[in-house]
Design goal:
The chain is of the alpha/beta class. It has eleven helices and 13 strands. Helices cover 32% and strands 26% of the residues. Helix 3 crosses helix 4 and helix 4 crosses helix 5 (147-159). 37% of the residues are buried.
């Protein structure tokens, strides 16, 4: 699996907004949970929804799914507010709180009840169990499940009616490394087949490998929406030279950050350009290494800079 920043996919003209949030606001007493938030999510992509604890991610998702009412603004999925979808489970699969199943009910019976409620054919129960690798545990009571198994059952419930949109809140919670790898592969394949994946997560390293783009919010407000590659591709280059001060002057005012007496980090100048400048000025270089920022680095910078109004 390629890292998110290296993934090359052309979603261009074939994508369309499937999830829309416009001017969304919600206050709880004196606390502003969501503040005039707007964004769209397109099909054929995995979109990560990121923000610190208390940023308003879960509140936004609950309003998107009609589980909470906004004080202002609108949301839609597939062109309609969620509550107006004629068969919502066939449009949107959701995972908000694991399986949310009675602990004394077996996994198979839990899905059978949901299938009956949603008008889903019985064979889909076995197919969904197989998809999430729970066929061998289908007759065990949910109360005996680990957290990771409950997450898998929750995903099976989300997939039961074969939706084209998945809205998932911390889906990797409780999964072991093998389970996380399986989830990544499954969601990537779901999006590549034209589905829409909107996933909230604190696991930034995992999102960086999974997502095509991310939406970042902080204190209930929109911060940025960018492709993963664009978010982490800022130009920072480690340069080492025996003539470092002459190189600094040749860079003509470019921002630098000293590492030691023979090296510094150059900001916002591509490594290729630094090499050309050094060559024109006959400056010897011992090292010229682009520094790739992690999603975690960028996330912390973005959210820490978001001060109160």
């Amino acid at each position: 699996m390629e890292a998110g920043g290296e993934r090359q996919r052309d979603h261009g003209a074939t994508t369309k907004p499937v999830i829309s949030v416009s001017g969304l606001s919600r206050r709880f007493g004196d606390v502003v949970a969501v503040d005039d938030l707007s964004f769209t999510v397109s099909s054929g992509k995995v979109t990560g929804f990121l923000g610190p604890n208390g940023a308003g991610k879960t509140t936004t998702i609950r309003m998107l799914l009609g589980l909470a009412h906004p004080d202002a603004g609108d949301t839609s999925v597939a062109g309609l507010p969620y509550r107006e979808l004629p068969a919502p489970a066939q449009v949107v699969g959701t995972l908000l709180d694991g399986a949310a199943a009675h602990p004394k009910r077996t996994a198979r019976n839990h899905l059978r009840v949901l299938a009956a409620e949603r008008g889903v054919a019985k064979p889909r129960v076995e197919q969904a169990l197989a998809t999430v690798d729970l066929s061998g545990a289908a007759d065990r009571r949910v109360g005996e499940f680990s957290l990771g198994m409950r997450q898998r059952l929750g995903l099976a419930a989300a997939l039961l009616a074969e939706p084209q949109v998945l809205i998932l809140d911390e889906p990797a919670n409780g999964l072991d490394p093998a389970g996380i790898r399986w989830l990544r592969s499954f969601l990537r394949d779901f999006a590549d087949r034209g589905g829409t994946v909107f996933v909230s997560s604190h696991q930034l390293a995992e999102i960086s490998q999974l997502a095509d783009e991310v939406i970042v919010i902080s204190r209930g407000r929109f911060v940025t929406q960018q492709p993963i590659g664009g978010l982490t591709s800022g130009h920072r280059t480690l340069v080492r030279s025996p003539d470092i001060e002459r190189l600094r002057r040749a860079l003509n005012g470019a921002a630098t950050q000293d590492v030691d007496d023979r090296s510094f980090i150059v900001e916002d100048v591509p490594a290729s350009e630094i090499g050309e400048i050094a060559a024109r000025n006959s400056i010897v270089l011992h090292e010229l290494t682009p520094q790739v920022e992690s999603l975690e680095d960028v996330f912390l910078t973005l959210t820490m800079n978001e001060g109160p109004k």
